[in-house]
Design brief:
It is a single chain. The protein has a two-stranded antiparallel sheet with strand order 1-2. The protein has a two-stranded parallel sheet with strand order 3-5. The chain has helices at about 35-45, 60-105, 125-135, 145-150, 165-185; strands at about 1-5, 5-10, 20, 25, 200, 200-205. It is mainly alpha-helical. The protein has 5 helices and 6 strands. Helices cover about 50% and strands about 10% of the residues. It has one domain (about 20-35, about 75-205).
Length: about 200
């Protein structure tokens, strides 16, 4: 085992570099009916009275009120699309981890690294850390939150299922908590996989 800073890396014998399965990642976040998503956001703004009308010295006219409602609905749609983008990345990463586990099982020298009764060993979160260590580009996506959202939702629910509080404030906290709980499920601290000993291809779908 090699210790670098506060991290522990598994030391693999020899100098062989291992090829892992390709990581298929989503392209731009898409929804089937963007107009329907916008309609759900508008209904959420209206039904939850997200823009209350308070008495003021300068009353808001109907045109200004509608503009504010539209702006808030657009913000909700953007937050939802970010949710879908993170969920899609999380789904791709978890599928890739399953493929990596099969690769490890097929390699006698790698197989013991996945056994919890042998330490240091690699937990499933070690593969998420490996993606970061390999400097895989994931613009506007936090991998821990992406995996956390996929662990929380089997499929991305429609926008109408969410509250405005979840979309605007709570989703990152929920995702981070889910990921942390998942990463800590294994007995003992997992060791990181040495990034220089593994290669894999990033393929955008």
């Amino acid at each position: 085992m090699k210790v670098v800073g506060n991290r522990q890396f598994i030391e693999l014998p020899g100098s062989k570099t291992y090829s892992l399965p390709p990581l298929f990642v989503p392209g731009q976040a898409r929804v089937k009916r963007l107009d329907r998503v916008m309609q759900m956001a508008s209904e959420l703004v209206e039904n939850e009275h997200l823009i209350p009308i308070w008495p003021s010295l300068e009353p808001i006219d109907d045109a200004e009120l509608e503009r504010r409602k539209t702006d808030l609905a657009v913000n909700l749609v953007e937050s939802y699309l970010a949710f879908v983008r993170h969920w899609s990345w999380g789904h791709s990463v978890l599928e890739w981890i399953r493929q990596c586990e099969l690769t490890f099982e097929a390699q006698p020298e790698l197989r013991p690294l996945l056994r919890a009764d042998i330490w240091p060993h690699a937990g499933r979160s070690s593969f998420v850390t490996l993606i970061d260590d390999k400097k895989v580009p994931h613009p506007r996506v936090r991998l821990d939150q992406a995996v956390g959202l996929r662990l929380t939702f089997r499929q991305p629910p429609p926008l109408a299922c969410f509250s405005d509080q979840f979309l605007l404030y709570l989703n990152s906290a929920v995702a981070t908590s889910a990921y942390r709980t998942w990463a800590e499920m294994i007995p003992g601290p997992p060791a990181s996989l040495p990034p220089e000993r593994f290669t894999f291809e990033l393929i955008e779908m």
